[in-house]
Design goal:
Helices cover about 40% and strands about 10% of the residues. The protein has about 70 residues and is an alpha+beta fold. It has one domain. The protein has a two-stranded antiparallel ribbon with strand order 1-2. A hairpin with a 4-residue loop joins strand 1 and strand 2.
Length: about 70
């Protein structure tokens, strides 16, 4: 595993619940200023992350800048 001091993680987790938690934490703690910048830092496409998490019960809230459980996104 490579050591990378530029970000707090080397990869984004695959488990949906852990992925949501990780992404929301990185955005909340201002490691990244947008979902797009976070995704590009990890060589992922924002649409790919949004679609994967939507399939697993989470929706992106642009207003809150975080993933929320489907039904709690208002």
């Amino acid at each position: 595993m490579r050591v990378n001091n530029e970000k707090t993680m080397d990869y984004l987790p695959k488990d949906p619940a852990i992925l949501v938690s990780s992404v929301n934490m990185l955005l909340r703690d201002e490691e990244f200023d947008s979902l797009e910048s976070l995704c590009y830092a990890f060589n992922r496409e924002p649409k790919e992350i949004k679609d994967y998490l939507l399939e697993n019960g989470f929706v992106w809230s642009e207003e809150q800048k975080q993933f929320r459980p489907t039904g709690y996104d208002a």
